[in-house]
Amino acid sequence: MCSFYCAKIEPMSKRNLYPNDYIKSTYDIDFAKLYEEGYRGVIFDVDNTLVPHNAPADDRAKALFEELHEIGFQALLLSNNKEPRVKTFKEAVEYCTYIYKAGKPGTAGYKKAMEQMGTDVTSTIFVGDQILTDVWGANRAGIRSVMVQPVKKWHEEIQIIFKRFLEAIILLGYKIYKLYGTDINKVPTKSSKGE
Questions:
Q1: pTM confidence score
Q2: Which InterPro entries does the record cross-reference, listed alphabetically (predicted)?
Q3: Distance of CA 4 to the CA centre of its chain
């Protein structure tokens, strides 16, 4: 996609490519705990973060956005997709806004998202499934990044599949870094309650 290759981007660094945390699923995150920690805005990628690639919003996604609304979060969909895809998803989940053709990994979409939500880098968290667009962009914008495993891997457009191979190499380095890194910021998960 042109947004990946044409965005004005700084050189890659280990810090920009590694997420602050890497977990199995968006739906494992304990958003109530994050709210207690001071977060007020959540930016989500859509495809393979919330639902399989190009799938409509399902009951689980709808329940998540309702939960976020009840907790008090501002939520925003940040996608490189065209407007019809993102708008349809937004209308189904209701409790969010959206930015389409966001130009990730460029930082402009992330900054615009925070402006729309009335948050800043200290009160915003990003959740996505790709290193070379989602995580890289969030980190460069100064936002806490949480990478999730793709909902349905390998059922994607060819350029995304190609990036998955590159990401696999980066994730090998991340696993070592996670053992010794000092800035791993574990996101609270529903399974970690009571620990």
A1: 0.80
A2: HAD-like_sf (IPR036412), HAD-SF_hydro_IIIA (IPR006549), HAD_sf (IPR023214), PGPP1/Gep4 (IPR010021)
A3: 16
